[in-house]
Structures are given as C-alpha cells and as structure tokens.
Amino acid sequence: MSGAETRDNFERDVSVGTFVGQNAAYYDKTFERLQRAELPHWHMNIWGLLFPWIWSSWRGVWLMFWLSLALDVTAITCLMQVVKFSPLLAEAQLNPEANTTLIPRYSGWISTYGTIGWILLIGGRLWMGRQANRWYYGQYNRWRILDSVSNGVAFKRVVLALVIMAICVPITTYRASQLRLDERACLNQVRAGEAVEDLLLRFELTDPTILSATLSAELSESQAAYDRLDALESPTAAQKSERSALRKSVRKLERENKAVNEYLAISTKDRFDCAFIDDFPTLTRIVPPGEVRYRRVPDEAAIAAGDLDATKVIIQQKPPVEGRRVTIFTYNAESIDTGINYLRAQYAGFFDAMTHILRQSLLRVEVAFMQTPWPVTAFLFLALSWAYTNRATTIFVAGSLAFLAVFELWQVAMQTMALVVVATAICVFVGLPVGIWMAKNKLFRWITEPVLDVMQTIPSLSYLVPAVAFFGISQPPAVLATVIFAIPPMVKLTALGILQVPESTKEAALAFGASERQLLRKVELPMAIPSIMAGLNQTIMLALSMATISAFIGAAGLGALVTESLGDAQAGKGLLAGIAIALVAMMIDRILRGIRASFSRI
Amino acid sequence: MSDAVVELENVWKVFGNRAAEAMEAIRTEGIGKAEVLERFDAVVGVKDASFKVPEGEIFCLMGLSGSGKSTLVRHINRLIEPTAGTIRILGEDIGAMKPDALRALRADKIGMVFQNMALLPHRSVRDNIGFALELRGMDGYRKFKAADKALETVSLHGYGDRLPSELSGGMQQRVGLARALAADPEILLMDEPFSALDPLIRRNLQDEFLSLSANLKKTTVFITHDLDEAIRMGDRIGIMKDGEIVQIGTAEDIVTAPADDYVADFVAGISRLKLVSAAKIMVGADEHVAKFGPVPKGAPEAKPEDDLDTLVSLSTGTDLPVIIKSDGKAVGVVTKDTLLQGLQGGTAA
User: A264-273, A528-537, B155-164, B327-336: which has the highest mean pLDDT?
Assistant: First the structure.
C-alpha cells in the first residue's frame, strides 16, 4: 500500500480500529483484502481455527459461537458413540458364539460415527477458521450502521461463553457416552427411596446404613426364633400359628432388607444419570386419596334407558354388488377411494420412499430434542428468550418449562417440538419457492390462491384421512398432514411480502441494471423478510395445533396424551396436556416474536 | 456516429393489448387518439416524439401530469419498450440490444433519479449508492470508494453508514442523485427529482445540481411539471402535451415565440427579465437612426445577449436609449418604449 493510499484510507482505518479494539493492523488489512475480493479461499484466522469458542465470544461474534458450539457438540456426540460401543464390541468379540450379529453391527456403528465425528470436528474447525474473518467483517459492516452491534473485545463475554459451555458441553458429552437408561431403573430408584423413607420413619432412624444394620439384626433374630419353632418335633397349635406369623415377618424383613440394600447399592452415578440425563426427574410421588365421597345423585338416564342389553348388528356391504344403487355422493366418495387405492398400489415405491425419508428425518430431530439432557434444553430456551425478549417473557418461559418438567411432560413435549420442527422445515423449504413463484407468475397465483384458501378452510381432521390412505398410520403421515395444514401462511405471506415491494423501488433497481435474479435476491427478498417472518410464525403455530390433531393417526407427543384422555374420558389428563400445548405454543411464539423484532432492526 | 448522446426518432408508445394493431391503424389511416381508444381500447402515451440531446446539455421535458413525460423518459433506458420508433444512446440503437447489453448500458451509462427517491430501506446509504456498481460485480473496496466519492459530490460526507429512513427528504434525494452519479454515467435521467421537496430545499438542490452539472457536464434529461424549474435548469426545453412534444427550444425561444396557444398560456405568467435578451427586442441601429436621428453621446451600452434586467438597470437614471454593441459595432438600439413593450411580451417584430 502506498503512502497516498494509506492517507486515503484514514477514516476507515480509524473505524476498523475502534471496532476491533485489538490487533487493528491485522484486521484492517484483512478487511481491506476482503473488500477488494482479494482474500484467498483458504485464508484462515488461526484463532478462529483453533479456539473458535473463545475467539468468537471475545470478539462478540455470537453467531459463530453458537455454530461452533453446535458443531463441536455434535462431533463430540458422534465420537462418544465410539467410546460407548467399543467396550460392547470387545465384550461381543470375547465370546463370538453368543451373538454373532452384534459384532458387525457394533463395528459398523463405531466406524460410521467415528468418521462422521472426525469429519465434523476437523471440517467444522476448518470452516470456522475460514469464516471467522468473513463473519467478523459482516459484523463490522452492520456495526457501521448500528452502533449497538457488539464490537471490541471483552473478557466478560468470554466468561459468559465459558459458563454456557460449562452448562452445555460436559453433560451432553457424558449423556452421549452412556447407553440409554433402562426405563424402569429410575422408577425403581424412586421406589427404593420411598420404601427406605417409610422404614426410616417406622424405626425412627435417619441413617439408611444404621437402618440396614437394624433390619439385618432383626431379621437374624426372627430367623433364629423361627428356626427354633421349626425344629420342634410336635408343635402345638399356638406354636404353629406363631411359626407362620414369624415366617411372614421374616419374609417381610427379607424384602425390606433387600430394598434397603438395593437403595444403598444405588451409586452416585446412577442417581446423577436419573436426575440429569434422562427425563426430568420425578420430584415426588404423592399418595392419592383412597376414597372420594360424592353427594349421591339419582342416575335418571340409566334408569330410563332400560335396554342396556340390546345389541346392534352392523351389516357390511361389499362395494361391487350386482344392481347396487348408490347416491351421487357415495358414488364419488367410493371412486375417490378407488383412485387412492390405485395410486397407493401403483406408486407404492414413491410413497414408501417418502415415508422413509420423513421417518428418518423425524427420528434424527427427535433424537436431538429428546436425548439432549433436559438442563441443556431448558438453558437454551431461557438463553434465547433472555437474548431476544424482555424479562417478563423470560419469566413466563421459565414458568412454562417448569410446568412441563413438574408434570412430567418434558419428553412428550420434546416429541411434539420435534414434529413441529420437521413440519416447519418442510413448510419453509417448499413454501418459500412456491411463494416466490406465486408472486412472480400471475397465472400460477390465480391457480394457487383458491387452492390455498381451500387448504385452510377444510377441517383439519379431513387431512388425516388421505394421509392415512397414502402413508398409513404413524408419524410420517402425521408430519405430512401437518405440513399441508401449516403451509398456506408461509406461501401466502412470502408472496404478499414480495408483491408489497413498491413498484418504484423495483423500477429503480431495474434502471440501475439489475437482472431478474438480482432484483429478487437484493431487493425483493430482503424487503419481504418481515412478511416472511410473520408467515413463519403463523406456520409454526398452525403446525403445533395440527401436531395435536394428528395424534389421531399416530403422532407422538402431547397430542397423543390429549387423544388418549379423550378415549378414556380422563378430563384432568386432557386438560393438563392441553395447557402444556398452549404453553409450548406461547413460548415459541413469544421467542420468535422477539427474534423477528430484532431482525427488523437490521 | 451521430453527435447527439441521446436521440429519439419518431417514438410512439401505445398502451393496451392491441397496441400493434392500433399502431398500424395510426400509420395507415392516421386516426386520432379518441378513435384509437374507441376502436382498439388502447391509449396513446407518447405520440411521435423526436429530439436530440447533445453532449453535456440539460434538456428539460416539461408538461402537466399525464402528458407522457415520465413515460417518454423511461424509453431512454428501455424501462418501457416503444411501440414504434428508434432510440439511440451514444449512437447505438438500444431497441436492438440483447438483455445483457441493455443491463450493462443501464448500469454503466445511464443514471436515473426518481421523484420518490426509491431508495432501498434495508441498505445503508453507502450500499444504496453502490447498488449499480454492485450489480456490475465491482468488488467491495472500489464500491466503497466510489460511493464515498459520490457522497462527497452531493455534500453528504459522513452519512454513508446511515439508513435512508434516518435522513430528511432533501438528503434522501441527494442520496438518489449520488446513486445515479456513482457509476459515473454519461447520461442522467431525472424524473421530477425535486418535485416532492419543500420550495426552499428544492431551490437549494436546483442550484447545487446546476453547479454540479457545470463541473460534471453530464448529458441530462430532466423531467418537470414546473415551468420555472424548466427555465432555471434547462439549456433547452421540450414542452409536452397529451403525449406529444409541442415545442422544443431555449427558454427564450419558448417565452418569446410560443408555438401555439397552449404554450403561450403556459408561459404567460413567466417573468421575462432574466430570459429575454437585448437581441430579441432591439430595433436595428440603422432603422433607429433613420427614425430618430443618431443616438446622443453618453448613451449606455450593452451586448446583444444581455437580458432585459441588465437593460432596465442601464436605462434607469438616464433619458437616453441603450446602444447594443457587438464586437464594438452598434447593431441596435433599445429605447424605453421598446424595453417596456419587451417586458410586457412584445418583440422587435
């Protein structure tokens, strides 16, 4: 750089210096090369490459921090699978005849997860190293427009980042290295704890170890007494009854002793596992009231009905009967059935592939939501709402999460969220291009608009029937029905956002030589973002409501609880699950609104 | 190659689904606007417009709203396709251009300023100004430099990092102008750029644009509905009415010799002080001498291109007529009577 050019750059030099805080010379040079499009593709920020978490938080590039955190945690999770399965493989190899299928399965998992893990770790780091300066440059440009964009260097942010990592990384890593917990293990733990509690009360003790000793002593005493009676040649009737009583008490003591020993045998690791890496720990088990008294009311209906024993006979007609006459409605309904069956049979491969893809993607997302330890998930939710909304909303989110946790709806809610996430992702990937096309093509808009209206007007339950017809019962058709129900706002608001761009603005862009594609990318889409975000918000809300209804065809999650309670007429269960759904919806809505608001600021 | 930078030749624009048929009918049968509307449900937007703008000239297109001036100016960068006629920019027929070449022309050669600014609200001022450069794939560094230079040109130095919404209307229009200038185009199209601004700011910007234009010497087509503005800005003025250019000439030509009653009505209220030159009203020197005898010594002198304002200043405080001299030779005489008539609207003829 010549002297004259340096002087020319004076103003910008100063502002880069103010922005970066430290190492201004390096960043000034790098930013200038970026601006000149002269930075080679392999250019890396060494700090970003080696310590992406620390570099990004120190400099306040939070997007990079979260991305690198997510990448590394995913990589570690994969590598932990190797740790998890290696001893199992060794064990299986020791006695090959025990189960020969296990060896290839374990070694397959180990090599696959190991490879993916290393690729993610190394590739992710390389990517971070490459992107670090580029993202930083983007942040610099935003900062020039908006002073509140984080700038400079701050150790406070590094501390915050370390806290976040301390909350997220160790527990997730540990979770990944452990086999899935036996579902009953944790319940047994709780039961053992309750039993010991009762015994402690009975013996007026506080220490389970002493309780165990007391029980052992009492057991051997009773055993000895029993043995003495048992040894008698000809016991009297009184002695006989005493003996059987003693036998019962010995059995009982044996059981109790066993429970206490089991309780004592519970390792700290098991306690930790049940508390933190599985479902939210069941805090308390409450003794339900043994008897509930109601005021007696005469059951008039039962008396009036009288013919309770009458049976109904349903005659089922086979469709093609000679000379059978049906109404136009029935005729068409049956024709549609036939058509669906035909398509189902004819294109079975297609539908099966769709089902497979949907199931697999849903499975992956479910794993992410359900296997992530609950403290991490809860922390992320709180962090999001803290970062993007106000204090009141954060308190509301905390309360909602507590509701889910205390009522043991955590895992179920996560299942619902997984379904919503997959459905929403599909809605975005399909809805966005369709919306753009709709905005661009009058004919297409003319055709699509009524279709979308109909999609929104048809009762949501109606979607379930064709979904079942084509894809059967289970999660995939539920996702599909949800997508159909939730996609219209995404499409409509994308189209609306693009159509709302003033004609004069588009004309100006064209007058300066924009091509159709540049017009879309640089003018129409950026200006449509508020509208698109509104569409996304509505889509998520609709997906959540449909996820509930599609429980009828086998969607797991909170909706399943509601339908179950409907079947069993358990109003309380249904109500609690319903409230949980509402809370999840409100939580997502509030957080998304916050994110939207911060988007519209730039 | 022609010497005109912008050249329009018999440009027609007919709006409607049956525009081509209508055009054919206009050609062969010479039907009028009303009949075109009745028979083909088509509207004539521009009717047989022809003009040339030589390099460095500011050409004003003046007309009331609906007179087709905005439509016509959009033909120059082919935002609107003409129904008939030829448009040449820098000697090249743009009707025959491929889309790529047309986009290149728009980005490199023609800058446009709009009445409602039409800035991109999501981009900073600097990124707005660099828009055309970005579209041409210029790297960020040169774009940054060029945008800052354009900002300095319109005296908005230091506003590059603001969003358009943070600026006042006048500043926004300066940004619009800077955007048009950033790519250093040869041609500027100004579509009523100052119409939406307060009178004071408008006046300000007009002056600034004039001084800027004197330096940059951009060939400019300037649209306005305000005759005062047209006279202030334009080297030449084209008056449009119902899609037709009724008269083209300098402000003086139009004011002193309106082509028809419409133009005459238009210019009736215009002050002639600064517009009309001595040459237009003076009586020939010989004629004057023949009538009144030689002009006494000590009479004030002026040049033929001096305006009436100067003549008025010269005539006050003396009873003598003003002698108009060109190259030291008396070519005409302006008496008080002629001057007063000239102020009112009469000419030497």
Answer: A528-537
Q: Please tell me whether residue A281 adopts helix, strand or coil conformation.
A: coil
Q: Does domain B278-344 have CATH number 3.60.10.10?
A: no
Angle formed at CA A252 by CA A250 and CA A253, multiple of 5 degrees: 65
Q: Please state, as a whole number, how many other Cβ atoms lie within 10 Å of the Cβ of residue A506.
A: 17
User: Is the Cβ pair B103, A507 closer than 8 Å?
Assistant: no
**Of A12-21, A131-140, A574-583, B33-42, minimum mean pLDDT range:** A12-21
Hey, is the C-beta of A526 within 8 angstroms of any chain B C-beta? yes
| Homologous superfamily of domain range A346-601 | MetI-like (1.10.3720.10)
Q: In which band, very low, low, confident or very high, does the pLDDT at A269 lie, cut at 50, 70 and 90?
A: confident
Would you call B114 and A508 a contact, using CB atoms and an 8 Å cutoff? yes
Contact: A512, B139; criterion CB under 8 Å: no
Q: List, for residues B173-201, the tens digit of each pLDDT value.
A: 999 999 999 989 999 999 999 988 888 88
Structural tokens at position A19: 């922005």
Q: According to the CATH classification, is domain B55-82+97-109+185-267 in 1.20.1250.20?
A: no
| In chain A, where the domains are located | 3-177, 183-277, 346-601
Q: Locate A368 and state its tokens.
A: 């992410």
Chain B residues whose C-beta is within 8 A of a chain A C-beta are 77, 79, 99, 103-108, 110-112, 114, 116, 118-122, 124, 131-132, 134-136, 139-142, 144, 160-163, 179, 183, 189
Exposed, middle or buried by CB within 10 Å (0-12, 13-18, 19+), for A283? exposed
Average pLDDT over chain B reads: 87
Kindly report whether the global pTM for this prediction surpasses the value 0.95: no
The number of angstroms, rounded, from the C-alpha of A201 to the middle of its chain's C-alpha atoms is 41
Cross-chain Cβ contact A514/B103 below 8 Å: yes
CA atoms within 13 A on the CB side of B172: 20
The DSSP H or E segment spanning A334 is helix A328-346
ipTM: 0.86
* CA distances in angstroms from A45 to A26, A52, A67, A230, listed in the order given: 10, 9, 16, 84
- Which string of DSSP letters, residue by residue, matches B261-300? HHHHHHHTT---TTTSBHHHHPEEHHHHHHHH-SPPTT--
Helix (H) or strand (E) holding B247, with range, is strand B244-249
Residues A205-220 have pLDDT tens digits of: 888 888 888 888 888 8
Residue B104 has its nearest CB partner, among A510, A511, A513, at A513
Q: What is the pLDDT, as a whole number, of residue A567?
A: 85
From chain B, pick out residues whose CB is under 8 angstroms from the CB of A19. Answer: none
Cross-chain residue pair A512–B79, CB shorter than 8 Å: no
Answer whether A527 sits within 8 Å of B110, measured CB to CB: no
Domain ranges of chain B: 55-82+97-109+185-267, 278-344
User: For residue range B300-311, what is the model confidence (pLDDT) as tens digits?
Assistant: 888 888 888 888
CA distance A84 to chain B (A): 50
Find chain A residues with C-beta within 8 A of B141's C-beta.
32, 35-37
CA distance B180 to chain A (A): 8
From the centroid of its chain, how far is CA A557?
A: 11
Pick from B43, B33, B35: nearest CA to B13: B43
DSSP state of A287: P
- In chain A, residues with a C-beta closer than 8 Å to the C-beta of B147 are none
